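Progress report, Aim 2. The chain analyzed during this reporting quarter is listed below.
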Amino acid sequence: MRLRVEHTTSYQYDAPVGYALQQLKLMPKDRPGQQRVIDWTIDVEGGAQQLHYTDHHGNGVDLIAVAGGARELVIRCHGEVELETWDGVIGPHRGAMPLWTFLRPTALTRAGRQVRALTAQLGRDYASEIERAHALSALIIDRLAYRIGMTDAETTAEQALGGEGGVCQDHAHIFIAAMRHLGHPARYVSGYLMMNDRTHQDATHAWAEAHFEHIGWIGFDVSNGHSPDQRYIRVATGLDYRDAAPVRGMRYGAAQENLVVQLQVQQ
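Predicted structure tokens for the chain:
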């Protein structure tokens, strides 16, 4: 299956910006037998690319400096990606980061009292560790309904579990925290999802991957209750959202920003 992506991120500032720097992780990953980038372009208005590099997680990173005095920054990326049938199984671990790194908790994925209590509900009656992971995914979405506006980018797994709803980022963080607590390396994935009921979206997607002996990495989309398939484009991975965020940045000055995201993913 070949998917076409049109993704625009616009920042409008209420006053001229003296200086700002944005870090983009918007380039999909090539992985033989799973996904292949046919073409991909990133265009910027109101800023200029300063540097491109590959980080320690194998993510392509672009650093964008916002022009002095700018009141708007627009980031457009578009392209086509060829997807194969892989049913959520990524396979053996690769890259510079040792596997044990993905057992390490982060501020967003620390397993506190609530995460530990959640894993205790799973019990032991499962045919395999993979079956238990799917049961965990189902338990998370049953415990924390998908609701927009209840959390933000700094909400931890523990805080989300104590709330009344969350989004895909929160579901992924809770799953990662729980799987690490159970002894499995786990990581965060940001990317694109072609939805069956609509083309236009207002945000990118996020899910999690856990590592199992003799199989490797397997993806789990907790929010949608299944493993990723041909409708999913993997873009960036990391220990949590901060490692894999599509756009992160900093700026000097008192200007306030308004963020608008426009996204289309279609076959």
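The radius of gyration is 19 Å. The longest helix spans residues 129-143. These observations will guide the mutagenesis work planned for the next reporting period.
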